[in-house]
Amino acid sequence: MTDVSIIKTTYIKPEIERLLKPLGGMGRFIEKGDRVLLKVNLLSPSEPEKAVTTHPEFVRAVVREVKKAGGSPFIGDSPIGRFSRRNLKKIYRMTGIEEMAREEQISLNYDTGTKRLSISGGTILKQSPICSYAFNADKIIALPKLKTHSFQYMTLACKVMYGIVPGLTKVKYHALFPRRAGFADILLDIYLLLKPSLIIMDGILGMEGEGPGGGGDPVELGLALASTDAVAMDISVCRMIGIEPVGIPVLKRAKIRRLWPEKIEYPLLRPEDNPIKGFRLPNTALHLLTGNNASNIGPVITDRCIGCGECEKICPKGAVTVVDRLARVMYSKCIRCLCCHEICPERAIKPGKIP
Ligand code: SF4
Ligand code: SF4
């Protein structure tokens, strides 16, 4: 069972203590004297009100909680472009992070060193350059921003750790893995390599439309979420927006890789009681809102099926059953996510015109 704590809040008083209380408070995650990396989202130089980056007042509230628990927080990210001191300086200044850090007397990362780490559980990446600031910390707390993303549809908790990959390598991975599924696997490979102890999402001023950069539109949501599990958190955001979580590539890959939590508990607000009404997805993802799941293309079972039942286990809608050692799909329940197609070890499910 995984807890996702959700509150309605503001930047004037983000109430991080109240948010973390059901999870055991900040003291559960850090020990006295820990150097704690606050892995923010600093995608590009942009003012806080544009909602491209984690808001400095949100970060300030987390900084204070970490200090109260005896930790020593510092801030780091590898933004878009060259991972250089000059770039970092510009981004810290424009995003309001520099001023906040000066006022709170905490340090900002300027170490641009990297090291190639092996990724034992990686499905696509077996190794990758990783920024030193990330693996030199005692603990990591990730502070993602709730935003849309034209390529991956949403950029939430699963994606925030991608910023521990140096900027130009990130660009290279985009070019090498242009397909949504492959790129989503890279995001999960990196997330699992240095999994944060805690994730606290800034959804107070979110982004809708053509995110994740300046093309998106800020939207007042007044939300903060906390969890130890990025997948559970992202599923929860999808539930609030009213879209099928498996429609988001990284969540679909997480489902196939069996990274979905068995059960999610909501000790405070529940997503179904707090829908985000009228949230605008990027144009690439409109089918998720309309329910028009790629017309009548769906999973077609072929005679290669041996009845192993893997598709039945993975299906998020209970639309597949194995009868007499043959899988059958109930198309009225099927949302055309094709998780079954991806998991089938016999390549017995083809995407095609459904009967
Ligand atoms: S996973 Fe493939 S082989 Fe196994 S039951 Fe489903 S369709 Fe058949
Ligand atoms: S495509 Fe349909 S049958 Fe296959 S996993 Fe998705 S919902 Fe289930």
Q: Explain this structure to me?
A:
This protein has 355 residues and is of the alpha/beta class. It folds into 2 domains: 2-288, 3-Layer(aba) Sandwich (Rossmann fold); 293-353, Alpha-Beta Plaits (2-Layer Sandwich). It has helices at residues 16-20, 56-68, 85-94, 97-104, 132-135, 157-160, 167-176, 180-193, 230-241, 249-256, 286-290, 310-314, 339-343, and strands at residues 2-8, 35-40, 72-76, 107-108, 114-118, 127-131, 139-143, 147-149, 153-155, 198-209, 216-227, 264-265, 297-301, 320-323, 326-329, 349-353. Helix 2 packs parallel to helix 4 (97-104). The longest helix has 14 residues, at 180-193. The model has no long low-confidence stretch (mean pLDDT 93). One iron/sulfur cluster is lined by residues 301, 305-311, 322, 327, 344, 346, 348-349.
In brief:
This protein has 355 residues and is an alpha/beta fold. It has 13 helices and 16 strands. The strands form 5 sheets. An 8-stranded mixed sheet has the order 4-3-2-7-10-11-1-12. It has a two-stranded antiparallel sheet with strand order 5-6.
CATH class of the largest domain: Alpha Beta
Amount of beta strand: 15-25%
Number of helices: 13
Number of domains: 2
CATH architecture of the largest domain: 3-Layer(aba) Sandwich
First-to-last CA distance: 38 Å
User: Which strand order spans the largest sheet, edge to edge or round the barrel?
Assistant: 4-3-2-7-10-11-1-12
State the share of residues found in helices, binned by percent. Answer: 25-40%
Low-confidence stretches: none
Radius of gyration, whole Å: 21 Å
- Mind describing the biggest β-sheet? 8 strands, mixed
Q: Could you name the CATH topology of the largest domain?
A: Rossmann fold
Give the H and E element order.
Answer: EHEHEHHEEEHEEEHHHEEHHEHEHEEHE
Kindly report the average pLDDT value: 93
Hetero compounds: iron/sulfur cluster
Q: What structural category do the secondary elements indicate?
A: alpha/beta
Report the principal-axis shape.
globular
Number of E-state strands:
16
